[in-house]
Amino acid sequence: MKILIFGVNGFIGHHLTNRILGTTDWSVYGMDLGVDRLSTSLDNPRFHFLEGDISINKEWIEYHIKKCDAILPLVAIATPKSYVENPVGVFNLDFEMNLNIIKQCVKYHKRVLFPSTSEVYGASTDPEFKEDETFLVVGPIQKERWIYSCCKQLLDRVIYAHGTRGDLEFTLFRPFNWVGPRLDSLDTAKEGSSRVVTQFIAELLMKHPLSLVDGGGQKRCFTYVDDGIDALMKILENKDDCCKNQIINIGNPHNECSVKELACILKKIFMEHPDHKSDPVYSEIVEVSAGSFYGKGYQDIYTRKPSIEKAQKLLGWTPATGLEESLRKTLYAFLEENER
Ligand code: UGA
């Protein structure tokens, strides 16, 4: 197969590329603005890379959509701080740019694996979110955090409408708080605008306080990236068309924990690391208000647990990596890279 990945240098993109090149005879065609996560793939003869912007390289995009068997449009701004600071930028990139790619996939009747998101379920109070049943609940317009959820939801709906009318073939996959090596850059975390796990790791390294937004009672289910990639590989293989026109949660419901518990576990793992067990001081854990941390456009999501019945049934997939192991592997990989 020929797999086309936009955002191939991103967190999911580069892990998926490594797996495809390492375990199959497929080729990967990829575009990204950067290459820093791709070092191990760049020399592989089955990896074809263009360093560039999806808003500019239109001919390359159309040519490769026509040529490839499966397309993954993974380019997106995916950090909540950006949703409230730059909602129009989120719309332009996450919605408009990806819509252009979907239109080309329709034109050439291609197979799309689209990264929907756990955020589409929004503030639903269902104990477990089910792909084909749960209501998608978002807050008022002034709460600009929801623009990301809305952009992804509308694309889900556009893709679904085309797919069920036979214009393209799709699988919408919904990652639930995937974590792992190279999740976000430590530089963005140093500016304070990263996802929580990278944010806490950067604070631990800088000896700055870990901030629990509104007390840190809100919960997430952290999913180790290798487990997520196992599921994506099964979706790409698509045995007996099992994923055709399906929406599939990819998350680990057994790894649920509050942000406060997350801070305590990461701090403990950090303090156990041989390079840090004799540090003279460690970060404190403090409470901050959502308004002061994110600004007035923010609204939080208190619980977010996936039902993975569908993934288990369609893919025969169950995540294997527990919470502490997922966080340890993630933290240690960041520490190793930070040393270099
Ligand atoms: C994330 C992002 O929207 C996307 O990356 C993605 O689509 C989706 O969820 C996902 O990965 O499933 P969220 O989980 O809210 O959303 O993002 P984080 O920035 O990781 O925050 C998690 C929780 O930690 C939030 O409740 C936030 O308020 C809290 N937080 C964050 C803190 O308490 N302290 C911090 O320093 C940072």
> Number of DSSP helices?
12
User: Rg from C-alpha positions?
Assistant: 19 Å
CATH superfamily of the domain at 76-180 and 223-252 and 305-319: NAD(P)-binding Rossmann-like Domain
Mean pLDDT: 97
Proper CATH architecture of the domain at 76-180 and 223-252 and 305-319: 3-Layer(aba) Sandwich
Helix content: 40-55%
Give the N-to-C terminal Cα separation.
Answer: 36 Å
Structural class computed from helices and strand pairing: alpha/beta
Beta-strand fraction estimate: 15-25%
How would you describe this structure to a colleague?
The chain has helices at residues 11-23, 58-67, 80-85, 87-107, 146-164, 186-190, 196-206, 225-237, 259-272, 290-294, 309-315, 323-339; strands spanning 2-6, 27-32, 47-51, 70-73, 111-115, 169-175, 178-179, 210-213, 219-221, 223-224, 246-250, 256-258, 285-288. By secondary structure, it is an alpha/beta fold. The protein has a domain at 76-180 and 223-252 and 305-319: 3-Layer(aba) Sandwich (Rossmann fold). It has a seven-stranded parallel sheet, with helices on both faces. Strands 7-10 form a two-stranded parallel sheet. It has a two-stranded parallel ribbon with strand order 8-13. Helix 1 packs across helix 8 (225-237) and helix 9 packs across helix 12. The protein is globular and about 60 Å long. The two termini are 36 Å apart. The model has no long low-confidence stretch (mean pLDDT 97). The structure holds uridine-5'-diphosphate-glucuronic acid. Uridine-5'-diphosphate-glucuronic acid (UGA) is lined by residues 78, 80, 117-119, 148, 175-177, 195-196, 199, 211-213, 216, 218, 220, 259, 300-301.
